[in-house]
Design a protein that fits this description.
Layout (H helix, E strand, L loop, with lengths): L1 E9 L3 H18 L3 E6 L4 H7 L5 H9 L2 E6 L16 H10 L3 E7 L12 H4 L3 E7 L9 E7 L2 E6 L5 H16 L4 E6 L5 H14 L6 E6 H10 L6 E4 L1 H13 L8 E5 L4 E5 L16 H15 L2 H16 L2 E2 L9 E2 L2 H10 L3
Parallel strand pairs: 1-2, 1-3, 3-12, 5-10, 8-9, 8-10, 13-14
Antiparallel strand pairs: 4-5, 4-11, 6-7, 11-12
Helix pairs in contact: 1-10, 1-11, 1-12, 6-7, 8-9, 10-11, 11-12
């Protein structure tokens, strides 16, 4: 059976890293006799330049019909001064909403070959194996807002946080399912001592987890979680939390591995899955051939696992990435003296050479 994917290069280094991931995807598919087709669509700053909007309707429709979407990165200083509704980042929020993607999965697993590049001690980093499940379509990012305005002589702005029971139920349920195939531990992160939405979150999370007898649910305040991710990251298995807290904590956790350029993500829900590295568009290095493609390549592996239905291809790509790092190949962002420094294309070729 042939599958179809949409590739959205986006901005900055997006074109380079998605091209690299597509080459690895094709090579892995050939190894396991898997057939797929693909097409490129625009979103983000590139779409603003071409169509006048960050998310053209033709991109949305193509994504809805696809089996998976591979995204590079969007945004950059060039589009920082457009009106709020036209910001490049609106493309990401729009895709999540249009495709019903309410859950973001970010695996954070340390590569032993890079343990000495983490800001933490190697003996602490080696224990890191976390999946952060972030709610994507609710909370303060999608709540009512008031842009800055002068009211009674004082300039002020407002963003409202809101969550409903169904939104919390479905994300906690997904986290519990993810934990079953791991250590069976879920940490629900909130700020229930201050926020009304967090008190509802904690209540509903407990009720949902009670239906999963294989899962142990615990609760933690977000500030304590931020601290424990640095002090004792090996204590976490699956973390589930709200949109805002998940955005912050997942970036913090990413640094544990030594480079944000290595980490993939999957956005899942009711429609087509969206796969992207967690880093930004890095316009300062675009076109230089030095971007790290591994986060996007690993995102393609997640696409094979969750949307295209080939665990064999997913595991093959992940093993190849681990091996290429163990063999000492490094792009500029993770390079240290004594290793082999390679370009984006060279790293891609080294991964392909280790497939299968």
């Amino acid at each position: 059976m042939s599958k179809h994917i949409v590739v959205i290069p986006g901005d900055g280094i997006g074109a380079e890293i998605t091209a690299a991931a597509l080459r690895v995807t094709q090579a892995a598919a050939d190894k396991v006799d898997f057939s797929f087709t693909h097409e490129n669509k625009q979103a983000g700053g590139a779409a603003i330049d071409q169509f006048g909007v960050p998310l053209p309707e033709e991109t949305v429709e193509a994504c809805r019909k696809a089996d998976g979407v591979l995204l590079g990165a969007v945004g950059g200083p060039k589009w920082d001064h457009v009106s709020p509704e036209l910001r490049a980042e609106k493309a990401i929020l729009g895709l999540r909403k249009a495709l019903g993607l309410y859950a973001n999965l970010r695996p954070v697993k340390a590569f032993s070959a890079l343990a000495n590049q983490s800001p933490l001690k190697p003996e602490i980093v080696n224990s890191v194996d976390i999946v952060i499940v972030r709610e994507l379509t609710g909370g303060i990012y999608f709540g009512a807002r008031q842009e800055a305005a002068v009211i009674n002589g004082v300039e002020q702005a407002c963003d409202n946080e809101m969550y409903s029971r169904p939104e919390i139920e479905r994300i906690v349920r997904l986290a519990c399912r993810a934990a079953i195939s791991r250590k069976g531990k879920v940490m629900s992160v909130d700020k229930a001592n201050v926020l009304a939405t967090s008190r509802l979150w904690r209540k509903v999370a407990g009720e949902v987890a009670a239906g999963f007898t294989q899962v142990e649910l615990n609760h933690m305040y977000v500030d304590n979680c931020a601290m424990q991710l640095v002090l004792n990251p090996g204590s976490f298995d699956v973390i589930v939390t709200s949109n805002l807290f998940g955005d912050i904590l997942s970036d913090e956790a990413a640094v544990l591995t030594g480079s944000i350029g290595l980490l993939p993500s999957a956005s899942l829900g009711d429609g087509t899955g969206l796969y992207e590295p967690i880093h930004g568009s890095a316009p300062d290095i675009a076109g230089q051939g030095i971007a790290n493609p591994l986060g996007t390549i690993l995102s393609a592996a997640m696409m094979f696992r969750y949307s295209l239905g080939s665990e064999q291809a997913a595991a093959m790509i992940e093993k190849a990435v681990e091996q290429v790092l163990a063999d000492g190949y490094r792009t500029a962002d993770i390079y240290q003296q004594g290793f082999t420094k390679v370009t984006t294309d060279e790293m891609t070729e080294e991964v392909i050479a280790r497939l299968g």
